[in-house]
Amino acid sequence: MEKCEKEHGSIQGKELWKADLGNGFYRNPILYTDYSDPDVIRVGEDYYLIASSFTYFPGVPVLHSKDLVNWEKINYCVRSLPFERYRRPAHGSGTWAPALRYHDGIFYAFIPLPDEGIFVTTAKDPAGEWSGLRCIMEGKGFIDPCPFWDEDGRAYLAFAYANSRSGIHSRISICEMDHKAERILTAPVMVYDGTQTNPTIEGPKLYKRNGLYYIFAPAGGVEKGWQTVLRSGQIYGPYEARVVLHQGNTEVNGPHQGAYVDAPDSSEWFLHFQDAGVFGRILHLQPLCWQDDWPFIGQEQNGDGIGEPVRTWRMPVISEEGRKYSVAADDDFHSSDLSLAWQWQANPDPSWYSLTLRKGSLALYCAARPDQKESLLWYAPNACTQQLQAPEFDAYVALSLHGREEGDFAGAGILGYEYSYAGICRKKGKLCLIVRIGKVKNFDPLGRQDRQGTVEEETAAEFIPEIEEGNRIMLRLRVRNGVCSYAYLLGNGGYTELPGSFPLAKAVWTGAKFTLYACNLLNRASGGYGLYESVRFEPAAGDGRENSYDL
After folding, report:
1. Helix or strand or coil: residue 3?
2. What was the pLDDT predicted at 7?
3. Alpha-carbon gap, residue 521 to 159, rounded angstroms
């Protein structure tokens, strides 16, 4: 942990979403953040969680908790991917649903790339250095891997299929692998076909309890599906199936992929995601118990004998240390490297930014894209993003533009199929405020690499020539009811609203992203840069602190 904090610093700030109610109970969701396809394990009194991150890098975030409710981000499993295509955004590809396991003193992360294969990385300390990726199963369409080490010393790998790559779906397969997860030993055996009764079954998590093998797997699709559990006395089946959690009469649609975990007091839990549209796949925690060797998840609420998600429940563990954990994402850029809050939209390149050009500030260079007529945010590998952390919030960005080239720009916005961003631009020799909007069409919702979408021409919604040379601004992004609006502050006056409000939209397999972005909009070579002095977030309700964010 100390190594992680030394390298990346700690992010301090106000939490935008708090699930721990402080009275021995928690509320769902536990994280209003896009941690898609979560897997969680317990090692001693510590919980670790990883999730998919697709084309955003560093990828596969690692979170740590003492109580399953309060979390802190401590690392990433993947710094970049060893394929040329990921030097540019590959929306919907990249790191899909991973699995995390601890075996013989080693942490294993199994990470599928749907266009390349299944890869493995290992670490002795999840907050420390993870090994380079090694491919254990090459090919298209293998997804959602989960390793399992049996008592007899044999090891197995369960996985599912991406129909968009392989033409196979609704099936779970298992094969044997060597004990160190370095190679596959046997051909895959299809152990369950859910085409008729559990269509689109995927995301298998393989466990063993009381001599029985269990595969926890969501079915029915992300938005409207349910949780299925498969059970067998033999690793290769046959498996019988039971639905153990569904939406029922609750507002939690499609309780989807997740993981089964226990607490030190022997209580048991299931952590899963809910598709929240533009806000991504947010995390819920459900109590779990066993009846006749079948898991029952959530709480019976409508008389159908199937569990439904709970709104509130008692805390799994009361930990005063754990309550200090937070994934708040404020940043003052005083660390020697970017904090763990930030991810690039492609494999990172150190030439995109500097934290030493001016101490205590992030400089984003006004990069050009010579392969395009103009810079478009959807295609920008140097978009510096982070996940949204609440359905409503205000973000404050202190920035200035240092560029002499026509078209130099620095600002911030919200990225998705429909996106907007605002900031300072050099136009006709002067600095002015602009808002730009874009919309992506012809995208592939399945994330295939040959259909990345086409951006309708980005347009400038407004030009306001009010910025003098050298002036800094405080840019405010306000998100309410799925819409973003912009305002700016010069000097110590009040905020001036910029015209328009702009809808948030999800991207391929992800929610919308908060984004810092600098470029030359005309794709001219430039030595210019945007200087970001701080990024701060405030809950929507506010606490009278708005005027403290001045210049």
Report:
1. helix
2. 35
3. 44
Kindly give the residue spans of alpha helices, DSSP state H, lying in 418-470.
Answer: none
Q: Where is 480: in which H helix or E strand?
A: strand 473-480
pLDDT reported for residue 156: 98
Q: How high is the pLDDT of residue 306?
A: 96
Cα dist from 173 to 225, 446, 520, 526, whole Å: 20, 21, 49, 52
Q: Of these residues, 20, 72, 144, 202, which one is catalytic?
A: 202
**Structure confidence by residue, pLDDT tens digits, 402-436:** 988 999 999 999 999 999 999 999 988 889 899 99
Two tokens at 213? 């093998």
37 catalytic residue (yes or no) = yes
| Token pair recorded at residue 226 | 């349910």
Are 327 and 71 in contact by the 8 Å Cβ rule? The answer is yes
The single residue of 20, 34, 37, 332 carrying the catalytic annotation is: 37
Separation between Cα atoms, residue 434 and residue 32, nearest integer Å: 30
Spatial contact of 505 and 416, defined as CB atoms under 8 Å apart: yes
Structure tokens, 41: 């394990």
CA 500 from chain center: how many Å?
A: 28
If you average pLDDT over every residue of the chain, what do you get?
A: 90
pLDDT for position 445? 64
Q: Quote the pLDDT of residue 329.
A: 84
Q: What count of residues does the chain have?
A: 551
Residues in the chain, pLDDT under 70: 1-14, 328, 373, 444-470, 542-551
DSSP string spanning 350-398? GGGEESSSSTT-EEEE-B--TTSSS--GGG-TT-EEEE--SSSEEEEEE
Q: What is the pLDDT of residues 154-211, one digit of tens each?
A: 999 999 999 989 999 999 999 999 999 999 999 999 999 999 999 999 999 999 999 9
DSSP string, 20-82: B-SSSEEES-SB-S---S-EEEEETTEEEEE---BT-BSEEEEEEESSSSSEEEEEEEES--S
Token pair 């900031």 is found at 423
Q: Is the dihedral of CA 291, 297, 298, 304 positive or negative?
A: negative
Residue 367 near residue 377, CB atoms below 8 Å: no
